[in-house]
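Q: Predict the assembly, please.
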Amino acid sequence: MKRIAGMLLVAFVLTGIVWAEDALLINGAGATFPNPIYQKWFDEFGQKNGKAKINYTPIGSGAGIKQITEGTVDFGASDGPMSDEQLKAYQDKHGSAVLHFPTVLGAAVPTYNIPGVTASLNFTPEALAGIFLGRITKWNDPAIASANKGVQLPANDIVVVHRSDGSGTTYIWTDFLSKVSEDWKSKVGKNTSINWPVGLGAKGNDGVTGQIKTTPNSIGYVELIYAATQNIPYGAVKNSSGKFVKADLASVSAAAAGAVKEMPDDFRVSITNAPGAAAYPISSFTWLLIPQKFSDASKRDAMKGFLKWAITDGQNEVEQLSYAKLPKAVVAKEIKAIDQIQ
Amino acid sequence: MNARLRWRKFVSGFMLTMTGVCTAVSVAVLFFILGYLVYHGGASINWNFFTKLPAPVGETGGGMANAIVGSAKLLLLASLFGVPIGFLGGIYLAEFSGSSVGFVVRYAADLLNGVPSIVIGIFAYALMVLPFKHYSTFAGAFALGLMMIPITLRSTEEFLHSVPRALREGSMALGASKWRTIASVVVPAAYRGIITAILLALARVAGETAPLLFTALSNRYWSSGWNQPTASLPVMIFTYAIAPYDDWHRQAWAAGLVLLGLILVVNILARAILARGSAVPRS
Amino acid sequence: MATTTTTVPGASPAAGSRSFLSKLRDGDEIARVITLLFAASVVLITLMLVLQLWHGSALARHKFGFNFFRTSVWDPVNDEYGALPFIYGTVVTAIVGLALAVPLGIGAAIFLAELAPQKVSDMLEFFIDLLAAVPSVIYGLLGVFIVIPLMRNYVQPGLKAAFGFLPLFQGPAFGVGFLTAGVVLAIMVIPYIISVSREVLLSVPRDQREAALALGSTRWESTWKVVVPFARTGIMGSIFLALARALGETMAVTMVIGNTPTISASLFSPGYSIAAVIANEFSEATGDLYVQSLIELGLVLFLLTFILNGLARLLIVVTAQRGSGMGHV
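A: Predicted assembly structure:
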């Protein structure tokens, strides 16, 4: 008995030793979508900047908003902008505001798995709304076939796959559908988590990807990165100018560029169904949520330095990882906004 | 040998073979899982894995050293919290309690056992993270420790009960007080079963992700002391498995393999250090 | 004037109650109190948890009342929540999981305890315990990549062909659903059943077996009719452990159950469980009613566990044999 107690005590003491680390640890948490690029950025910035170590954990956009409001992390990240109520809640709790800074762009794409069909399909907004509402049930339905002349679509039942967990991707997808379909807007609405009329739920982008890969005749929506790196076919969507655009880095950035004119000063904007012939209609920013007031000056300086770097030099790294760059006009606006952080 | 006896012998042989089949199926599943992990993650296990910090996507040479140490710290602290409560509580139930108090405690332990790990995480978050306004290893260990209590408690009680009365009575006849009997005779006799249960509880919490996401969060760097967020193998597995990169998927499998290896090592060490054989002869 | 009675340590009347001081000196009372405190802390922790859940779901409870148990709609956009499909899914998957795991687990435990040579038994036990350490995320991934295709391509069509007349095995086979979740749960809880049952069986005194064999029973009869009943409460205890795990399992279930709040007689249908929906939606849930409804679901799971445990205990008491070892529940 004493032997064990002794050993445990020694182990406890050893592991509890604080080995000297005078680097500053800054903690952030939030969206899972930008995790890969954030990890790369924080890593590089940490190497350049020695003193500050920025630690980011992907726990979900909503969780990121919650934690920054509670004050358990130094900054947050979200795929969907905070609502007015959430901003007010933060303000009430902390006495100062929280600022949004777009960092990269992503897109939600319709992916599918139809045996025998290798072509890239075209989807009209009406077709997508109909499929996800459960009105269009077969692949060879005229609503789909009319946009895909020349492709042999089978008469099989469509298996719809959606997200089971709350997510920014669902938000973008339903935001788009609400804009293009009155029916969708009134019957279902937009949110990170909704009451889906039809379909199977899969957890995470990876879950949907996996489900689609293994389920014939399925259709779902995932972040562009997943479709691109996991080799599942995805289709083009008709944008507000009437063109069928497939999501790629250029078309996503074009969507942001198109929305710049209308961009509010706090950067909380939805860019789905953006104007522009080359724009991909289901695109979105992802934001870092930074408190306007920092109690710790060194943390503040580190974050400001990081932001400045990330939206300028850091943008050179994003395309390798299949994220779309911020348009220059947005970057210029953000640089001015960084000075608001005190 | 009449017909009835023949039938009974046949049934005996058949059923016992079936039990062998059950064992074979269970073990086969395990080996299949191990094989799968080795096949998919084996290539990613190298010296770097055990010594380096995680690297961003696309860069080679990264590892999960901080997650391995983090998991070890969490499990150690969780055991220090959960095992004494379960063990001593189990002693109470087996040796001292009346039937009504015992009933309530057992029921409570079973209820606690059935709580989804995510709810434990939320509970631990409200208790250990929110008031202090930061995530910490402490909070993570608290959540894991909670989950270890029910298995330890129920099993300790069960195995103490299985020690024959004769041993207890012999000891007391020699003049030992009750607590001395428990400490020196009964508990050592039930050692095997109790250690098995503790190791089982440890194995269970070693793989839990959800509670850690609410309490210890994660850390790309080394976590010093007990008060900072810490990386852990299950959280790394989760984060990497849901990413769109095949390289990270492989690392997730590798981490799963390492986690199993960690538990295996703990199992072996614990049994080696604490093995005394049973005081009660095995059948 | 009051007469004081002095207590002389040790010199207590033959009637039997020793003085407090003498008990203290022996250390027994201290031991009792200390262990009582620890046991009580378990109850305290559980109570605190329940209170937290109760408190955190106040809004939802007041709004929905008992309708929460009867409605099937789960709509975060319109703030309408009902628990029925989740309760159904939790119960069904737990039943399927246990139905598969208990026979397999007890069978394997019997083999390991009674038939296998000690070294082999110990070694196999080592490995089976490892199954408990596999993170549930990995079980989920294995479920997605292996079990689901297996189910969709072989098992479900096979079951449909053989037993399709039963409502249990009707409907389209997606691969995900109650049956798949049950199978994954079975794999996850087997190590608990085997490990604990084996230890309990090993601790059954030799003379019980020998007495049975001496009376002329076959090996199997002595095992099944004498040893196993003797170890009954321990085995039931392991099933409790397994049940608890099956009810509360989060990650692995959500990856294979289909995450659709449906109530269906068919085991092939996709469904949802309480733990899965909390895991999926809690982090992102905004809006007080939404969050509180999820917390209320946690409370409902508690209630479910409470009831199922109660029923199982009732079963033990009702089928109790005299003289079959421990009688506690």
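Residues 84-115 of chain C form the longest helix (32 residues). Chain C touches chain B through 102 residues (CB under 8 Å).
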